[in-house]
TrEMBL record:
Pfam families: Death (PF00531), TRADD_N (PF09034). GO terms for molecular function: transmembrane receptor protein tyrosine kinase adaptor activity. The lineage of its organism: Eukaryota, Metazoa, Chordata, Craniata, Vertebrata. It comes from Aythya fuligula (Tufted duck). Transmembrane segments: none annotated. GO terms for cellular component: cytoskeleton; nucleus; tumor necrosis factor receptor superfamily complex. This is Tumor necrosis factor receptor type 1-associated DEATH domain protein. Keywords: Apoptosis, Cytoplasm, Cytoskeleton, Nucleus, Receptor. The keyword Nucleotide-binding does not apply. One of its GO terms (biological process) is positive regulation of canonical NF-kappaB signal transduction.
Length: 383
């Protein structure tokens, strides 16, 4: 039985005999243990309870010698020993900014068309920096103009050390610039980088690698991996798989992996990771308030037809819901009728109310221009 287990058992006994034990007695028992002695039985405890008592484990001479003393160096040694048995986990933030005025990384990442490409470049560059695809994890990517901020998690000290060396020597910067150049089909993507851990600017101490490691280790991740990151990684894996088996699949099977077309009558489809529109591949996502506003503003009289396309796998839009919306919001006009239609769809489908499903419904009804607007392929000019 280890020391911690015995302490938990004794605490339970203390709670059971509150009438007899006090905080002072508990401290006294702990003091006895720290000196390597077995504690004496608590005074005036009933015999039945005394029989259930578990003696505190005694420390060996070696353990006593290694025990930290207030203000001594033993405490540091114990912390290092504990760290060696527990997983080494740390966190840092990588700030990225393009020095080219015409390239805004946050805008590229916010674009549903460019996001997968930017993410792929980040993933490959980080893998290059540690020599392993799993050397460093991305927990979230923040868009804070003009910076793209990547929250990183390190699970091994050695991986973190390799990352710091790659960052210090400019290898990471060069790798990311090359991957972005290829992914975005640009001639060059010049970058500036900054690395932070908490309030510490690690660029100022890169020559002191141990200090950098200590700062990163102190900053534990404050979140789990963002759902969007998981979806993008799954998309990359599926894309690689699709490329590997593409030549062995029938054409209709290949198309089914990315097609946004709506299934026939049935339940709501599971959200796809990507879809094709006009020969281009887009990352799928849930509808945003901006999508909602644009749809209501631009769909005009065809809102009913779009609603009937969506109703095939959305029970909330089954007849006579669409006709009732037309009557209920007749005075408010087409904008409100279209707005309420898509609101019903979003409220009913939740995360399954995706841009891919709406684009498919728009294509089905000849609203290609509106689909392009929602995907950011051109800017709509108000009349």
């Amino acid at each position: 039985m280890n020391f911690g287990h015995a302490l938990l058992l004794l605490k339970a006994q203390v709670q059971e005999s509150q009438r007899y034990l006090s905080t002072t007695l508990f401290i006294e028992l702990k003091a006895y243990t720290c000196r390597g002695l077995s504690p004496r039985p608590p005074p005036a405890i009933p015999a039945a309870l005394q029989q259930r008592a578990v003696p505190w484990p005694c420390r060996s001479a070696e353990a006593e010698a290694a025990a930290p003393r207030p203000g001594g160096s033993g405490c540091r040694r114990v912390l290092k020993m504990a760290g060696s048995s527990a997983p080494w986990i740390g966190s840092a933030y990588l700030f990225l900014q393009s020095t080219c005025k015409t390239i805004a990384l946050p805008s590229l990442y916010e674009s549903s068309q460019k996001k997968p490409s930017v993410f792929k470049a980040l993933k490959l560059a980080l893998a290059d920096s540690t020599g392993s695809v799993n050397g460093v994890d991305m927990l979230k990517v923040h868009c804070s103009h003009p910076h793209l901020i990547v929250q990183l998690k390190f699970c091994k000290q050695e991986n973190c050390r390799r990352f710091l060396q790659s960052y210090r020597e400019g290898v990471l910067q060069e790798s990311l610039q090359n991957h972005l150049q290829l992914a975005l089909a640009m001639t060059t993507v010049p970058l500036e980088m900054e690395l932070k851990a908490g309030n510490e600017h690690l660029d100022n101490m890169l020559k002191d690698e141990d200090r950098c490691l200590e700062c990163i280790y102190r900053e534990k991740p404050d979140r789990l991996r963002d759902e969007e990151i998981t979806e993008l990684e799954e998309y990359l894996q599926s894309l690689i798989l699709h490329q590997n088996i593409n030549n062995n699949l029938p054409a209709k099977d290949c198309a089914s992996l990315n097609s946004p077309s709506l299934p026939s009558q049935g339940s709501s489809p599971s959200p796809q990771l990507t879809f094709l529109f006009q020969g281009q591949q887009f990352a799928n996502r849930t509808l945003t308030p901006d999508d909602h506003q644009k749809f209501a503003k631009l769909v005009s009289k065809k809102w009913k037809q779009v609603g009937r396309s969506l109703q095939r796998n959305c029970r909330a839009l089954r007849d006579p819901v669409i006709d009732n919306l037309a009557l209920e919001y007749d005075r408010e006009g087409l904008y409100e009728q279209a707005y309420q239609l898509l609101l019903r769809f979003i409220q009913s489908e939740g995360k399954k109310a995706t841009i891919a499903r709406l684009i498919a419904a728009l294509e089905e009804n000849g609203l290609t221009s509106l689909a392009e607007e929602l995907l950011g392929l051109h800017s709509h000019e108000d009349s």
